[in-house]
Design a protein that fits this description.
512 residues, alpha+beta, two-stranded antiparallel ribbon, 32% helix
């Protein structure tokens, strides 16, 4: 009998056969094991062995450093330190928003007036007047739409003609000329005075219309009066001009002065000639001929260049003509020297009126200059601008005011009295003879009543007087020359006789 728990034949037949242990899982496990083992055996012989080694070392060192790391903490510690207290000032700035004016809705006509004073002392008042016009494209074609109308207001001065009025400007004038009071009773304000201010006014208008530089206030009011005087007894005529003293530095003369300072002939408006002239007496050349010829050559060279503007060609042509005339005159004649000769300048306003007006001064007429209690003899040596009055040579100006220069007046105020003696010129013209000039002026003033007590006519020293030699006083054979006569030329440092004088001296010695 089979055991109780033994299977039946039927159960035994339907049971599956038993699988061997370690089936698929075991096979995979074994494969992985052998693969890892193979890789471990082959890895040391591949390029990755070094990298793996270094990586393992870094991991080990990192672990060690982590164990030995020192952890520090910042423990706050209270330190008491005195710090200076700075007071902060806060300024409250109130921002005000600018309120702009509202935009205009239409054009509003306006009239603006502005007043200013120019550098030359002229007060300028401008009136701006606007009015509504047509379209801009049309207005720009109309010359009347945008224009300027100038209106210059000038007070033309009246001439003084009484003794108190003249004494107000030159207090010494009645004392120096005691006969003036008698002549003023019949004196007449000359038409030259009115013509002078007409000339000034016309010049201002012309310059203003062309927007040129106009005559300044000082030069407009440069003449106080022009009086025609006639002495009742002698019938000597004189023209009295009360004015200032501008300076002229013109003139040259090789006979008397073979050299000329650059300070003179390089000054503005310098001219080598004067209206009073006489024929040359020596062969000594004018000191400016060579320089003027050089200027002429430069002007001609530039004029020959093609392509210059028409305006420049006109300037060069005028300059060439002027230099040519001046060079010709300097070679043939001698002239006054403003630095050495006492003369006055008369306005071109007088030229041409001698036949019409017997009180008209002309070149060569004698004149006296009265200033600050002194009276100086002179002649009318040159013409000046027709719109100016009151001008004298540099010598005269420096005598009155030592600070005077070609650029600085001898007298700014209207304190200078010019007494002209028309019709007294001596012909032909001769070199300056200062002693003779003084003598003639004394005679002419004597015809007007003479010079008052306590005053005397100034005596000019001869600027070309040759220094006397020690034995000159013992030599009585040679006559002395009058003061002011022409003498041998000198330069700035040493007086040297001319060739003609040396020849004369040597001839005289041979004769003795």
């Amino acid at each position: 009998m089979p055991p109780e728990n033994s299977p039946t034949p039927t159960e035994t037949a339907f049971q599956p056969a038993a699988r061997p242990r370690g089936g698929c899982i075991g096979t995979v496990t074994k494969f992985l094991f052998f693969s890892v083992l193979l890789v471990a055996l082959l890895l040391p012989f591949t390029p990755f062995a070094g990298k793996i080694k270094r990586g393992i070392q870094q991991i080990i060192e990192s672990a060690r450093s982590t164990k030995e790391r020192i952890i520090t903490r910042e423990v706050p510690k209270e330190i008491v330190k005195e710090v200076p207290v700075t007071k902060e000032i806060i300024k409250e700035v109130e921002v005000v928003k600018e309120v702009l004016p509202p935009l205009p809705d239409k054009y509003i006509p306006r009239k603006d007036v502005d007043v200013a004073t120019l550098f030359n002392g002229i007060t300028v008042k401008t009136n701006l007047i606007t009015e509504e016009g047509s379209f801009a494209s049309l207005e720009r074609l109309d010359p009347e739409a945008y224009k300027a109308e100038f209106q210059l207001s000038i007070r033309v001065p009246k001439a003084n003609q009484t003794l108190p009025e003249l004494a107000r400007i030159n207090p010494n004038l009645p004392k120096i000329l005691p006969g003036l009071e008698t002549m003023l009773s019949t004196a007449k304000v000359s038409g030259f005075y009115h013509k002078l201010y007409q000339s000034k006014t016309s010049r201002v208008q012309n310059d203003l219309t062309r927007l040129n530089k106009i005559l300044d206030r000082h030069n407009y009011y440069d003449c106080e009066t022009i009086l025609e005087l006639t002495h009742p007894t002698t019938q000597r005529r004189a023209l009295l001009v009360q004015s200032e003293m501008d300076v002229v530095a013109d003139g040259s003369d090789g006979d008397r002065l073979p050299t000329l300072d650059e300070y003179i002939y390089m000054s503005d408006y310098y001219q080598p000639t004067t209206s009073y002239a006489w024929p040359k007496a020596t062969t000594s050349p004018n000191p400016l001929v060579a320089r003027w010829e050089e200027r002429l050559k430069k002007a001609k060279d530039e004029f020959a260049v093609k392509g210059l503007s028409a305006a420049r060609n006109r300037e060069l042509n005028a300059l060439i003509q002027e230099l040519t005339v001046q060079i010709s005159e300097m070679k043939a004649r001698s002239f006054l020297i403003a630095e050495k000769d006492p003369f006055v300048v008369i306005s071109l306003l007088f030229r041409g009126y001698a036949d019409q007006n017997k009180h008209t001064p002309q070149i060569g007429d004698y004149a006296c200059v009265i200033h600050e209690g002194k009276i100086y003899p002179a002649i009318c040596g040159d013409y000046g601008p027709s719109y100016k009055m009151g001008e004298a040579s540099l010598l005269m100006s420096k005598t009155i005011n030592p600070k005077s220069t070609p650029y600085r007046r001898g007298e700014d105020d209207l304190k200078v009295s010019y007494l002209f003696f028309p019709g007294t010129a001596e012909k032909p013209n001769t070199p300056p003879n200062l002693a003779h000039w003084r003598e003639r002026c004394l005679q002419l003033v004597g015809d007007l009543g003479g010079i008052g007590p306590g005053y005397e006519m100034h005596t000019w020293e001869d600027p070309f007087k040759k220094p006397e030699e020690p034995d000159a006083a013992a030599n009585t054979a040679s006559p002395s020359k009058p003061t002011g006569s022409i003498t041998p030329p000198t330069d700035a440092t040493k007086a040297e006789p001319s060739k003609s004088e040396v020849k004369k001296d040597s001839t005289a010695k041979k004769t003795k």
